[in-house]
Amino acid sequence: MKDVCELLLLENQVCFPTYAVANKILRRYQPLLREIDLTYTQYVAMMVLWEKEAVNEKDLVKALYLKANTLTDLLKNLQKKGLVDIKKDDHDRRNIIISLTEKGRKLKEKAVKVPKTLAEEHWLTDEEFFVFKNLLYKLLKGDWDK
Q1: Quick check: 111 and 100 in contact, CB under 8 A?
Q2: 75 and 64 in contact (C-beta within 8 Å)?
Q3: Residue 60 CB partners (closer than 8 Å, separation 6+)
Q4: pLDDT confidence of residue 146
Q5: Phi-psi region of 122 (alpha: psi -120 to 50; beta: other; left: phi over 0)
Q6: Which of 31, 42, 43, 49 is 20 to 30 A from 80 (CA-CA)?
Q7: Has residue 122 got a pLDDT over 90?
Q8: Cα–Cα distance measured from residue 72 to residue 49, given in angstroms and rounded to the nearest whole number
Q9: What percentage of the chain exceeds 90 in pLDDT?
Q10: In this structure, how many other beta carbons lie within 10 angstroms of the beta carbon of residue 61?
Q11: Which of 88, 79, 84, 83 shows the shortest CA–CA distance to 56?
């Protein structure tokens, strides 16, 4: 067992470099997302919609690892921008369906610049990127509610 003092060293933490790298990545995204008038959270929500065209609110919450109340304001803002439609499901009024508008579909053409630009910066080799991404998803899918 490590000395108690060693347990508290910043360099021995996994949370700190994860936090710091996430902040650096998000700061790098900001100017690119500003060009398409999206926040990072709006951007990832739009990515799900660009892939699926329409999605149930519960499925979007699950895909983004967010809480439903966090998503509510985000979706309202996307709707105000004219990027999505929000409707109750005709078959089950308890379900909310979010779908792309034509403006939301067109934004995809501009948004593709974001990952292309970041991929060109070569933070990691292709192999390192693959390993890093897979490790992050492994952690993300783990049971954190113990």
Answers
A1: no
A2: no
A3: 45, 48, 71, 98
A4: 64
A5: left
A6: 31
A7: no
A8: 15
A9: 73
A10: 16
A11: 88
